[in-house]
Amino acid sequence: MIPLVTIGFGAPVSFLYAAVRRRSPALGVAAAGYGAGVIGTFLGFGSGSAAGVLLGLLLFVVTWWVSAAHALSARPRVYPRPDVRGQMNEQVVAMARQRRSLREAARKIVAEDPVLARELCIGRPDLMLRQFDDGGLIDVNHVPPEVLSRLPGLTYEMVDRIMQSRSQGGGFVSAEEVAVRCDLPPSVVSDIAEYALFIR
Questions:
Q1: Phi/psi at 139 (nearest 5 deg)?
Q2: Is pTM beyond 0.85 here?
Q3: Which among 197, 196, 195, 199 is positioned nearest to 99, based on CA atoms?
Q4: How many whole angstroms separate alpha carbon 128 and alpha carbon 48?
Q5: Distance of alpha carbon 3 from its chain centroid, rounded?
Q6: Quick check: 104 pLDDT over 90?
Q7: Residue 166 confidence (pLDDT) above 90
Q8: CB within 10 Å: which end of the chain, N or C, has fewer?
């Protein structure tokens, strides 16, 4: 809108900025052309002759309207619309990475201070009083079956086997042990390892 509201006199600066922003030689040439039009307008008005003033007036009108129309048509290239879908994807990826970092921090607490981990209810989304965000960890050794079923790749039958093995043989120490004791397919190990936690 700068060329329009400045009656064309702001066109050279406006197009020079656009040329630098987009690294566009064509817009740079346009800035020089509109600059020449503005200079010609002043020279024509200052010439004192009727022909000079008429030429200055013609340059003024042409520079004003052509630069305004050109600016409106060039705006989408200078200021392209944001990629909303791409921005949403970036936010989702950032959130997923944040959740992963929360899980890593929670695992560190479990390893260094199990008592604190129990107090924070890490891996226990079934406990209503929990306030600590562990990034979605699930303590396989303590959660009820409906929470255990949230682990990726587990069917209800697998959850039943895990619950039976847990009640008969005690808790687990790793996703690999769960797979061996409960006869789970190897593909499940990598699926649940990211979210499974084993607090004794």
A1: -80, 105
A2: no
A3: 195
A4: 87
A5: 34
A6: yes
A7: yes
A8: C
Q: What's the burial of 184, exposed, middle or buried (CB within 10 Å: 0-12/13-18/19+)?
A: buried
> Which residue bears the tokens 């899980």?
103
DSSP of 53-72 = HHHHHHHHHHHHHHHHHHHH
**Amino acid 129: pLDDT:** 83
Q: Report DSSP letters for 88-147, one per residue.
A: HHHHHHHHHHHHHHHHHHHHHHHHH-HHHHHHTTTT-TT-TT-----SS-EETTTS-HHH
Which two three-digit tokens encode residue 115? 């008592």
Residues 6 or more apart in contact with residue 106 via CB below 8 angstroms? 117, 120, 122, 123, 132, 134, 135, 137, 197
CA-nearest of 188, 183, 187, 181 to 151 is: 188
Written as one letter, the residue type at 72 is L
Tokens of 39: 């200079």
Q: What is the pLDDT of residue 26?
A: 87
Element (H, E) at 196: strand 196-197
* Greatest CA separation for the chain: 108
| Distance (Å, whole) CA 193 – CA 186 | 11
Helices vs. strands in the chain: H and E counts, helices first: 10, 2
Identity of residue 57:
L
